[in-house]
Write a structure and sequence with these properties.
By secondary structure, this protein is α/β, with parallel strands linked by helices. It has helices spanning 2-9, 14-19, 23-30, 33-36, 66-79, 99-107, 170-180, 199-206, 226-236, 240-245, 261-267, 321-334, 349-358, 373-385, 396-403, 417-430, and strands at 55-60, 91-96, 124-126, 131-133, 139-144, 158-162, 188-193, 210-215, 275-283, 296-303, 308-313, 339-343, 364-368, 389-391, 440-441. The chain starts with a helix and ends with a strand.
Length: 442
């Protein structure tokens, strides 16, 4: 059937070809992953009889088809679909950043497990039991990287790990999973992720039992919005962030960086101690609209332990001034802030006036920078290097911007709006309100 389909597709449209088939034949072709998959979306040869690889690492850009790849591989393992599977894997672990992420992306997403099965094969999703049950009895259990201990005890013949570079307790979760992979002739794992230079990913990549596939965003252009591709290519093409997020490259920390990713991972926390003070810092954009810089909005606190905790990144793009002012005031209320720290280099009194239109009583501390971004950022980077700053949970976009910030004052070729807001927040909390005597605090 595959050869016939390939031949016919050269001479007539796919729609015309499918229209001539019986419904059962159409369904069989529609759900045959080997017909539609790109080469990089098909698993490497296993060698049979338990031989071959243990970890299949699928590195790809945003929208490259990683989720579909993982879901189709799990389907083949759950049902024993040859040649993609050597046998039926009756116990499968589904591990994601959070339980909500597993459900919304890996299971119920447009390319998730429920979508890739025909009706008669589709597993039953039992949210209360955190599991999927296939008609043949195969069970897929749901786990979160927020709780590595949840993997202590169960055993599996296969596992799908999604977006491991966003996992809060990555190494611990991965290690617990390895102890549970003890069923079947050759337990295997597929890992689907956009790469970041974290220790866990590097460890998996250098393992002799790992086979790596790569795909860029553009490889899946037939299934993506042309407007999306045009916009992200315009914004991020040829940048370090673009090479990572679109091309799926593993981009190491830049040599001239003020921040390195290990600092975030070593100090990242889930629970926040009692805080002595909380501020919301805002770096307003100079314009509005879809092409404007983002409005940097960072919430941070200082603990009684004399350490800083970055609580949230509420930055927003493309909004009118009054809209981002509402976001700032909302963050101030949500986190019971003590004050709003607002940079007024651009906009002057307008920034304070906008915030007071939303809430006349909100306390606003205006700051005005007279030195460059790099000089202002250096003392804040030093706080991270000394282990005095913790990120609460994942702050992916902020961390990407910090790690790509260069001496030219730009990150991925753009103004570092999130970084600017972070610098003002931590300057206020940790450095007495100034990183340099030439910075005037109004």
């Amino acid at each position: 059937m595959h050869d016939a389909l390939g031949c016919l597709k050269q001479h007539e449209s796919l729609d015309h070809f499918l229209a001539r088939l019986e419904p059962a034949e159409v369904e069989r072709i529609w759900y045959d992953w080997q017909v539609w998959a790109r080469d990089d979306q098909l698993p490497p040869h296993t060698g049979g009889n338990g031989g071959g690889w243990r970890n299949w690492l699928v590195l790809g850009g945003r929208g490259a088809g990683k989720t579909r790849t993982g879901a189709e591989w799990v389907r083949s393992q759950a049902l024993g679909i040859a040649p993609l599977a050597d046998e039926v894997s009756q116990r499968i672990a589904l591990v994601g950043e959070t339980i909500a992420a597993v459900r919304s992306v890996m299971i119920e997403g447009v390319s998730g497990l429920l979508a890739v099965h025909p009706d008669h094969e589709r597993p039953k999703f039992e949210p209360s039991k955190l599991q999927l049950v296939w008609p043949n009895g195969t069970i897929g259990q749901i786990f979160s990287a927020e709780n590595p201990a949840g993997l202590r005890g169960p055993q599996f013949a296969a596992a799908w790990c999604d977006e491991i570079c966003k996992w809060r307790h990555g190494i611990e979760t991965w290690d617990m999973l390895q102890f549970g992979l003890r069923l079947g002739r050759a337990p295997r794992v597929v890992v689907t992720t956009t790469p970041k230079p974290i220790a866990l990913l590097k460890r998996i990549m250098i393992s002799p039992s790992t086979v790596t596939s790569r795909a860029s965003t553009i490889a899946n252009e037939a299934n993506l919005s042309s407007a999306f591709l045009e916009e992200v290519t315009r914004r991020y093409g040829n940048s370090r962030l673009g090479r990572q997020e679109l091309d799926g490259e593993l981009i190491e920390d830049r040599e001239d960086a003020l921040w390195i990713r290990d600092w975030f991972e070593q100090s990242r926390v889930r629970d926040v101690p009692q805080l002595a003070r909380i501020v919301v810092a805002v770096d307003p954009p100079v314009s509005s609209g879809s092409r404007a810089d983002a409005c940097g909005i960072i919430v941070a606190g200082r603990g009684f332990d004399k350490r800083a905790y970055v609580l949230a990144d509420r930055s927003t793009r493309g909004q009118l001034p009054l809209d981002w002012a509402k976001e700032v005031v909302a963050a101030y209320g949500a986190f019971s802030g003590d004050c709003i720290v607002a940079e007024v280099n651009q906009g002057g009194e307008l920034v304070e006036n906008l915030l007071r239109q939303v809430n006349p009583g909100v306390p606003v501390k205006k700051v005005h920078a007279t030195r460059g971004k790099w000089v202002r950022a250096e003392p804040i980077s030093a706080l991270y290097g000394r282990g005095l700053v913790s990120h609460v949970g994942g702050l992916e976009r902020l961390e990407d911007q910090l790690c790509d910030f260069g001496p030219n004052g730009l990150s991925s070729g753009r103004s570092p709006d999130r970084l600017d807001a972070l610098v003002w927040a931590l300057t206020e909390l940790m450095l007495g309100g100034s990183t340099d005597p030439k910075i005037r605090l109004v």
